[in-house]
Amino acid sequence: FHYLFDPGSGTCPQRNAGVSVLARDAMTADALATACNLMPPESIEGLLKAAGATRAVIIMPDGAVTTIDA
């Protein structure tokens, strides 16, 4: 469990163990990382581009690391 809440399911999202985002400022990076935790991986690149962010680093529940560049 963690502090994120998925309003669609009413539970903590289980898709990722963690997400970090590189963006122009900390507030944008935090908001995008939170949103990315609720999104399927194929949707993340578009969100990053739209927000002007450059990269998301996703840690999967099994420990695998995926990087998505905008």
Mean pLDDT across all amino acids: 91
Helical content, roughly?
A: 25-40%
Strand order of the largest sheet: 1-2-3
Overall structural class, as computed from helix and strand content, comes to: alpha+beta
Q: What is the percentage of strand-forming residues?
A: 15-25%
Q: How can the largest sheet be summarized?
A: 3 strands, antiparallel
Annotation field: number of helices = 2
> Which stretches are low in confidence, meaning pLDDT under 50 for 5 or more residues running?
none
| N-to-C CA distance | 29 Å
Helix-strand topology string: EHHEE
Radius of gyration: 11 Å
Description:
With 70 residues, the protein is of the alpha+beta class. The protein is built from 2 helices and 3 strands; from the N terminus they run βααββ. The mean pLDDT is 91.
